Amino acid sequence: MAMNVYLDNSASTRLLPSVLDAMLPYFHEHYGNASSLHSAGREAREAIDRARATIAAALGAAPQEIVFTSGGTESNNMAIKGVAFANKDRGRHIIVSAIEHDCVLNSCRWLTGQGFRVSLLPVDESGLVDVWQLAEAIQHDTILVSVMHANNEIGTIEPIEEIGELCRRRGVYFHSDACQSFTRLPIDVSRQAVDLLTINAHKIHGPKGVGALYIREGTRITAWQHGGGHEGGMRSSTENVPGIVGFAAAAKLCSDEADSQMPRLAALRDRIIERVLGSVGGAYLNGHRTRRLPTNVNLGFHGLEGDAIRLLLELDAAGIAVSTGSACSANESENKPSHVLRAIGRNAVEARGAVRVSLGLDNTEEEVEYFLETLTRTVEDLRSISSARLGGH
Q1: pLDDT tens column, 241-291
Q2: How far is CA 197 from CA 87, 237, 321, in A?
Q3: CA dihedral sign, ordered 57, 63, 65, 68
């Protein structure tokens, strides 16, 4: 019997019931504007203050260092552009890894038209940045380095603590996109010497449309959105109180359960990798084998890369949701090769043909077994069709 199995948690996660329960009162009971001085406004402001303290504690930060935004894309834009324009008097050179999210890469492309220089830092075949290469790339006018904590497509975990230490020694700001790693990996912005860090809610079983940017106190950054001076003047716009409350509830829940849930999910991840590589002919893994998110598996199948969309649709017909890469990039073109897979050395065909499986708190052993059985059968069927097609010629 077919099951409904959601394995696209890197794209978005299910809002947990307890998170929804925390949000509901701020839609219809405590609905005041957090900038208003009356009691309804004060209730909303107090809820935001509590949420800010919760998020800060999860990062090892101070509450005043957390700025709430509409999500990861806005936070990354704010970090990259805000630091660039605030520090252009001392330099116009920025370094980012070649496998950053499109919102970072496209922000940097835009900055090149504003007189900034951007260097793309290569990665190795598993997606890892070489810290020594980064050290050589830093120049006298480098003002910012941006390297994500863990990649959204292949799950590779970057050495951000070493990168942070290097940037601190060289007097360069360090920004890291931690949307995929927040609550899944330990984060301590002081120990890891991060100056700016991006997180969002809908990757951790919270609501869509809310995120945050950690900005270390003393960081030179200019506001990118102007208005009434909300969020300490860094992000003018009436705060999304229910979303912020939900973000904090999700962050606390996932942080509290990380010690038990992440090892469980890592075991499911390893079961998928070992079974697929061991029993499905032509299967290969993208990304680092062990230095990867506990929730991420990125697979390719030699000779079937051109059938990746069909594989995805066949799995979908069986009730299984996976993806072929980043959900944001999928909106541009289903035929666009993944810049991440190209950066780790995959050819243009392979870079179009990966299947990303990403686990969440809801996933069970039974669901993983159903996925593995269905995937094995579907790949075999597609190989038979491909062989018959080639034989016909």
Answers
A1: 999 999 999 999 999 999 999 999 999 999 999 999 999 989 999 999 999
A2: 18, 21, 29
A3: positive
Amino acid at 315: L
Q: Which residues are catalytic?
A: 328
User: For the purposes of burial, counting CB atoms within 10 Å of the CB of 350, is it exposed (0-12), middle (13-18) or buried (19 or more)?
Assistant: buried
CA distance to 55, 273, 312, 337, per residue, from 382 (Å):
46, 20, 12, 21
User: pLDDT by residue (tens digit) across 29-39?
Assistant: 999 888 788 98
Q: Which residues contact 367 (CB under 8 A, 6 or more apart)?
A: 3, 5, 7
**Whole-angstrom Cα distance, residue 345 to residue 341?**
7
Residue 40 DSSP label: H
Q: How far is CA 205 from the centre of its chain?
A: 13
Sheet strands side by side (includes 117-121) = 66-69, 211-215, 196-200, 173-177, 142-146, 93-97, 117-121
Domains detected in the chain? 5-13+258-381 (3.90.1150.10), 17-253 (3.40.640.10)
- Residue 299's beta-bridge partner residues? 285, 355
For 61, 231, 363, the CA distances from 190, given in Å and listed in that order, are 8, 22, 33
Structure tokens at 379: 């790949």
CB 188 within 8 A of CB 255: no
Nearest to 34 by CA among 17, 20, 51, 22: 51
